[in-house]
Amino acid sequence: MNYKRKGNLIFTKLDRDEEILESLKEICRHLELETAIVLSGVGQLHHTTLGYYKGKGDYTPEVFEETYELLSMTGTIIHQPDGDYIPHIHVVLGEVDKNTIGGHLIKGLVGVTCEITLLTSNISIKRSYNPETGLKEMVLD
């Protein structure tokens, strides 16, 4: 993993077989970020798990073992009071026949490479469990 920061922008290059969410959390910890917005992400993923929220307790995770082009990636990474970071990221993946799949990124390993651009903010946002939805939702106090 390599990254370069100037002001509020961070350009990131992840290498083969790096786990994308853990790598992003590591960057946030190292730079002690409050909040990061995923502006873009392109590259290649394999062994990817995507979810689709159908209702409380039903996130329908599905594993996609093959290699896919990462066509689009967007979301947030929010620092929690306990020191952890919670990424909420959605992706669109392209198949070799040019069909697409997408969803909430639960896990993904980098194929050849992955390039991600983050925008940082010092706005303090938290996530809190909502018993009605079963989700850790954004709290804007």
**CATH topology (fold) name:** 60s Ribosomal Protein L30, Chain: A
Which H/E pattern describes the elements? EEHEEEEEEE
Overall geometric form = globular
Summarize the main sheet.
7 strands, antiparallel
Helical/strand content category: mainly beta
Radius of gyration: 15 Å
Q: What is the fourth-level CATH superfamily?
A: Hypothetical protein, similar to alpha- acetolactate decarboxylase, domain 2
Notes on the protein architecture:
With 141 residues, this protein is mainly beta. It has a single domain, classed as 60s Ribosomal Protein L30, Chain: A (2-Layer Sandwich). Helices cover 9% and strands 61% of the residues. It is built from one helix and nine strands; from the N terminus they run ββαβββββββ. Strands 1, 2, 3, 4, 5, 6 and 7 form a seven-stranded antiparallel sheet that branches. It has a two-stranded antiparallel sheet with strand order 8-9. The radius of gyration is 15 Å and the shape is globular.
